[in-house]
Amino acid sequence: MIEIRNYINGELVAPAKGGYIDNYEPAKGKVYSLIPDSGEEDVKRAVEAAKEAFPSWSETSLDERSAILLRLSELIDQNLERLAEAESRDNGKPLKLARTVDIPRARDNFSFFATGLRHFASESHRTSDHVINYTTRKAIGVAGCISPWNLPLYLFSWKIAPALAAGNTVVAKPSEVTPMTAYLLSELCIEAGLPAGVLNIVHGLGGSAGNAIVEHPDVKMISFTGGTTTGEHIARTAAPKFKKLSLELGGKNPNIIFDDCNFEEALKTSLRSSFANQGQICLCGSRIYIQRGIYEKFRDTFVEKVAAMKVGDPLAEGTKMGAVVSKPHFEKILGYVKLAQEEGGTVLTGGHAEQMEGDLSEGYFIRPTVIEGLDEKCRTNQEEIFGPVVTLQPFDTEEEALAYANGTEYGLAATVWTQDVSRAHRVADKLKSGIVWINCWLVRDLRTPFGGVKNSGVGREGGWEAMRFFTEPKNVCIKY
Ligand code: NDP
């Protein structure tokens, strides 16, 4: 059984207290590796190492820093297949998805910021004939990066790469539910020649290892992606210590389909935006609003396609729907399906676990589920389920669609399907959401601001937004 190690001060080490947590393979429902149950002492060591590494890392030349991060990106590419298999096994996601989305994106996160750091400039303002201001942006110190289980290496590296590129050192914690690729990354960091202490990876539970990172007085900024309740807790802990905070939290994203949409495109993409990664992407559209003129046609075709979707072994070639990530999550999703029925919803397809055979018989598989007939304000339509469950609802007017779409406490992403360019801009403008996709979904450009409004978070990741978060600006004003 693989025993995962922490990566502290350039070395792979056991947790200080020697305790381990079971790591389950979701497709089999069995323990297949052990995760360090790290605590305060491990975090303390990691922060010490990061503090010691900071002066020299923050002063490395841009060329040198860029070269090391590019080397890491190349190593991820060279190990793509191994990492994709590990991600699929650890998370339950289809191997193909890990191979074509998760791991390539982790590679690109490092190369993007490795090259980006060479172009990161700051402002200068000529105030009058005799006064000029210029702003410097310098690395801050030790960054704490905490990430969730749904896109493990993808989101882990999305934080670490800009933090390192900006010249900070890092103490990071992946989700305890999916630690494997972060562990493999630590091996690649050693191979890439990343100086000791520049990146430290501490494995363990959120309440112990995660909390110790957030509380540590020498961790000056926290970049967190995860649930809104955890984000709230982190904000409460970090705010009185005046730490910089970036919080990417939950969502309940609307997918609005107008009568005049390109029907085939809307249908095809909605299948993906509903069920990719078993619906466990913070950007998935879980509330589908369809204009009345095409409601029945869309519903019937959508349900027919969903009913035909095959749920299978994540590691098998061709599988598009794998297992959900853990037993508690499996139970939570099925609990929401039950709730939806109690709230008056009708399950049009799915709504139950998929019983697999052989060594997958204990796995956490759920049929993709479509529900209609629910009220807008019911819990099923308000709370984040984060699984392969979507609701359908008809609407008549643009105003009605907007009221539904904006009617939750979340505001991460929204999708709109229409051929009317004026309506597209109008609706995009009125959606209370950090990201709007028109006639597409999950098309990403790493330069764009990424994040949500309302309870979906505070701050933005991506491009210069990330580089600004991980640096402190200082303005110098000169009279001459
Ligand atoms: P959690 O909030 O449960 O956990 C996220 C991370 O925080 C994990 O590493 C977790 O550790 C850690 N953690 C938990 N408690 C604490 C604590 N008290 N102090 C410090 N760290 C802590 O989220 P999930 O992992 O369940 O991820 C799913 C959520 O993430 C969904 O709500 C989803 O919407 C959101 N998400 C948001 C995205 C965005 O960009 N806005 C993108 C992807 C997901 P551990 O798991 O080891 O206990």
The residue-averaged pLDDT reads: 98
Which residues form runs of ≥5 with pLDDT under 50?
none
The portion of residues assigned to helices is 40-55%
CATH architectural grouping of the largest domain: 3-Layer(aba) Sandwich
Shape: globular
Radius of gyration equals 23 Å
What CATH first level of the largest domain would be assigned? Alpha Beta
Determine the N-to-C terminus distance.
68 Å
In spatial order, strands of the major sheet run: 15-16-17-14-13-18-19
The unique ligands bound to this protein are: NADPH dihydro-nicotinamide-adenine-dinucleotide phosphate
Structural class: alpha/beta
Largest sheet: 7 strands, mixed
Strand tally: 21
Count of domains? 2
Please name the fourth-level CATH homologous superfamily of the largest domain. Answer: Aldehyde Dehydrogenase, Chain A, domain 1
Note down, in words, how this protein is organized.
By secondary structure, the chain is α/β, with parallel strands linked by helices. The protein folds into two domains: 2-249 and 456-479, Aldehyde Dehydrogenase, Chain A, domain 1 (3-Layer(aba) Sandwich), CATH 3.40.605.10; 253-446, Aldehyde Dehydrogenase, Chain A, domain 2 (3-Layer(aba) Sandwich), CATH 3.40.309.10. The chain is 40% helix and 22% strand. The protein contains 15 helices and 21 strands. The strands form five sheets. Strands 15-16-17-14-13-18-19 form a seven-stranded mixed sheet, sandwiched between helices. A six-stranded mixed sheet has the order 10-9-8-11-12-20, sandwiched between helices. Strands 1-5-4 form a three-stranded mixed sheet, covered by helices on one side. Helix 8 links the parallel strand 11 and strand 12 (244-248). The longest helix is centred in the first third of the chain and has 22 residues, at 95-116. The protein is globular, with a radius of gyration of 23 Å. The mean pLDDT is 98. The structure holds NADPH dihydro-nicotinamide-adenine-dinucleotide phosphate.
